[in-house]
Amino acid sequence: MEAVLAIAIGALAGSGVWLLLRPRTFQVIIGLTLISYAVNLFIFAVGGVRVGADPVLGAATDPSHYADPLPQALVLTAIVISFATTALFLVVLLTSRGFAGNDHVDGEDGTP
Amino acid sequence: MNGALAIAPILIPLAAAAVQVLLGIRFRRFRAGLSFLSCLALVVVAAMLMAAAAAPDGKGTTLVYNLGNWPARFAIVLVVDRLSALMLLLTAVLALAVLPYALGRWQRMGPYFQPLVQLLLVGYNGAFLTGDLFNLFVFFEVLLAASYGLALHGSGARRVGAGLHYIAINLTASMLFLVGVGLIFGVTGTVNMAVLAHLVPGLTGTPRALLHAGAALLGLAFLIKAAAWPVGFWLPRTYSAAIPPVAALFAAMTKLGVYVILRLSLLLFGAAAGPGSVHFGSDWLLGLGILTLVVGSIGMLGARELGKLAAYSVLVSSGTLLGAVALHSPAVTAGALAYLVISVLGIAAFFLLTGLVVPRETPEGAAQLEPYDPAIDALFAAEDERRVTSPAPVVILAASFFACGLLLAGLPPLAGFVAKFALLAPMLDHGPGATVLFALIITAGLCTVIAMARAGIQIFWADADWEFPHVEARETVSVVGLLGLCLVFTFVVAAPWNYLAATANQIHAPAHYIHAVLGQGAETPP
């Protein structure tokens, strides 16, 4: 379970960084999205990965049977914030496309 | 003093912004009045918090507000100590001073200027007040979301291009921030700063190494906000493309990065942090501070437009502060805080001036004044005709420019000299790195004088046919207000200096902070 998560986080972060360094704005936004997925999974995983553990609900028994709720709360906040900022970035990206007439991150394209 | 007052600096601008958003573009005067009231209330509340934090019982009290009355180690906590109160008051005064300037032509370049400024203040104040790392992230995002809107205020190809880079870099920095918080949470099981500071001395082996990795990632995220070399290249372009009142408000943003680095490095990695953690990363911080200073100085000498010059002066002050923070000495920190206050006020005044002395006809001026929507501008055409213009502002502006030069370079007789002297005097006792920093701060002052003198001569003397741009009375009020405040600190030195010295001593003794937040239970591990 840990290995699968670790590979998933690594693959997402690696592809995200590669895309972030590309010259097209669309690639940059996809890269940022992938990185935020990787980060969200990472936060989720730092609480310890448990299979079949209950959320904090229902009759109180031994607290050690529960999955750690704090990373879940943190990741929920992080998801909302990164979703909102990515949406904002998308608007700026479209505006930049409108002003510059191309989708290069610097607004100047070497190729016609 | 009731601890609940600590949340007022977040709620006041939030409420003002909510009302202003609902009003849209109608009731312009009412919205402006609301902004003014909000900023005024913030100054009053910040002054009250400062008075409470500086209560004369030796160390001063630290106000703690537990949201929802949950115990501090489980829930969100707001903490007001001398440093937070100082930063709150500085931001509130800055916002109040910039407000009259923005009320004229600048705010008309887009519909939501006022609420965005209020949300920016929510972000600032929350970040200064919060006592846990994740909440710090949330308030950073509030601040950044508002700053994205403000950086793009007025639109235009130049601003959108700069804004695109600014947003991409800050989103990446936020991701690094989250990874750092995640690592620290994974090791310690908490994001509360006081609990963390309490736990760090007890960590050993792998957890300590992971904590260092997390702290380094957090540090990198804050260095990006503080525009340290080599992660600060976004700043000159963004700040010079933003309209002057926005750039002036952003002057406190790099200082927010410095504030968090100062706060966390002293809390988590102070003298009691245990083997291997004492002053963790301070060598790197000193080195990066020195390099930032060098880059800023060279940038100032090379800047060919006034906005870029002002932006590089932000880098100079950032580098100076980062280097000073790395020295971990209460005396240097006190000087650094004085320098921080004066440089925020001086740089803000300089940014405001850049909007006034650049004639509208030049390409730079034209870029600043690209309207958001000519139709909206036309709505207020009647008001434009009542603009107050007279030859007197030329004298005022030239004198203000001169004063800005003195403040930024740290030359006598203004407060910039006092602050820089307080920063430099205790620095020489801290090894070769501090000596290099000392020499470079002096050199940066020289570069500032050269760059400012050259810019001043080009603007005010060189061009005989230069036609002075329209200057509204309220725009001069802002600039003169900010500089007048610096002038006050030239003469009223004892009380502010005592406060700053006590602040430095307080943050260098983190046991006080931990005790205030965690109460009597601080002696036993949670």
Strand ordering within the main sheet of chain B? 1-2
- Quote the beta fraction of chain A: under 5%
CATH class of chain A: Mainly Alpha
> What's the gyration radius of chain B in Å?
22 Å
**Radius of gyration computed on alpha carbons of chain A:** 19 Å
Low-pLDDT regions of chain A: none
Mean pLDDT of chain A: 85
Count of discrete structural domains of chain A: 1
Shape of chain B: globular
Biggest interface between chains: A-B, 32 and 30 residues
Q: First CA to last CA of chain A: what distance?
A: 49 Å
Q: Mean of residue pLDDT of chain B? A: 85
Strand runs of chain B, count: 2
Write the layout of secondary structure elements.
The complex is a heterodimer of chains A (112) and B (526).
Chain A: H1 2-20, H2 25-46, H3 69-100
Helix pairs in contact in A: 1-2, 2-3
Chain B: H1 8-23, H2 28-53, E1 63-66, E2 77-80, H3 82-102, H4 113-129, H5 133-151, H6 157-188, H7 193-199, H8 205-225, H9 234-241, H10 244-268, H11 282-302, H12 306-326, H13 330-357, H14 363-368, H15 374-379, H16 381-384, H17 392-409, H18 415-424, H19 431-462, H20 473-491, H21 494-507, H22 510-518
Antiparallel strand pairs in B: 1-2
Helix pairs in contact in B: 1-2, 1-4, 2-3, 3-4, 3-10, 3-13, 3-20, 4-5, 4-10, 5-6, 6-8, 6-9, 7-22, 8-10, 9-12, 10-12, 10-13, 11-12, 11-19, 12-13, 12-19, 13-17, 13-18, 13-20, 13-21, 17-19, 17-20
